[in-house]
Amino acid sequence: MVNNRLEITTICPDAENSLFTIESSEIEAQRAAAVAAASAADQHRTLPRIKILGTGGTIASKGASSSQTAGYHVDLTIQELLESIPDISAVCEIEYEQLCNVDSKDINEEILFKIYRAVSDSLQSFDGIVITHGTDTMAETAFFIESTIDFGELPVVFVGSMRPSTSVSADGPMNLYQAICIASDSKSRGRGVLVSLNDQISSGYYITKTNANSLESFNVRQGYLGNFFNNEVHYYYPPSKPLGCHKFKLRLEDSSPAPKLPTVCIVYAHQAMDSELIDIVAERCEGMVVAALGAGTLPEIVNTRCLAQDIPMVFSKRAMDGMVPNANLPKSADKSKCNIIASGYLNPEKSRILLQLCLAKKYTMEETRHVFCGVYGG
Ligand code: ASP
């Protein structure tokens, strides 16, 4: 006697996905008919509305030949880019806007706030937002947007490419197509800012560019969330936002010029480092980030110079992965006056933005330390 219905229950806490049912072929046939009927009915449902914001980058670049993968220029509009991707009319309805068309090395505060405004303005009328962006500083813009906009469940997906549009096997069109599908997929809701590149879906809060040339460029352990393959969006975990992400509510006047964030400089440590550099840079800024050695160490003489500054100093790391714990910070004689904060898992450029936001909010040292505690530093 054939067992018609066998239920296997896992201990997965996700009730919807924890029940697996293996059925007889007759029941399977009935189910297939039901699925076909449901998908026919789905044709009539309204498609998600996706806003696409173009800012430039390699994805919008052209070279002089199909083998050129360096020295190319931004030369493609978001409209032209959208013309190069497979038909998405069955996936979503799109509206697009060209915010700027620059290499991401030229993303300054004015453009950053333009992106901020465009995302904020799209929250009410769209189901998802896609931002095309150069990969060099994409992680910084993604971190800023995650830290400053409360977009609730709405997916905000950053996308770029490593090869210009003119090259053989250009990765831009597929990356853009995937990003739009990801933004349209209900499984992407409630996951914060995402970065989609090279089939991978990552957390914009943590991910960073780790390879200057390869298609497999974005990395770091705490960043990967899922994968895109053959028109399917695969997440490894249920929706969750980055733990410890401190949201800063900005109040922006409509008028230009863009507001100016406090100046925070990054100093890169190395063997035989000149400790005077710390004093020279401190004169120019309101806060400093040091890309320290290993898990936050610096020569004693440099530590002494850092402790002597009257601005907040965040110790981050040169290493791409890993973290700087509070335990590795130099100790000051007066514990309550210590101006050094550990960056936790944040790299120097993300630490810079977080410190800028803390300074803009006029947080005290203790409040700033508390913010960095969220990412296991402080
Ligand atoms: N230089 C380019 C940019 O960041 C690199 C890229 O997009 O991959 O705009």
How does this structure look, described?
With 378 residues, the protein is an alpha/beta fold. Helix content is 26%, strand content 22%. It has helices spanning 25-42, 78-83, 109-122, 138-148, 172-184, 276-282, 300-307, 348-360, 365-373, and strands at residues 5-9, 19-23, 49-56, 61-62, 73-74, 93-102, 128-132, 156-159, 193-197, 200-203, 208-209, 218-219, 224-229, 232-235, 264-268, 287-292, 313-317, 340-342. The longest helix has 18 residues, at 25-42. It is globular. The model is unreliable at 1-28 (pLDDT under 50). Aspartic acid (ASP) is lined by residues 57-58, 103-104, 134-136, 160, 162. Residues 57-58, 103-104, 134-136, 160, 162 line the site of aspartic acid. It catalyses: L-asparagine + H2O = L-aspartate + NH4(+).
Q: Summary?
A:
Helices cover 26% and strands 22% of the residues. The protein has helices at residues 25-42, 78-83, 109-122, 138-148, 172-184, 276-282, 300-307, 348-360, 365-373; strands at residues 5-9, 19-23, 49-56, 61-62, 73-74, 93-102, 128-132, 156-159, 193-197, 200-203, 208-209, 218-219, 224-229, 232-235, 264-268, 287-292, 313-317, 340-342.
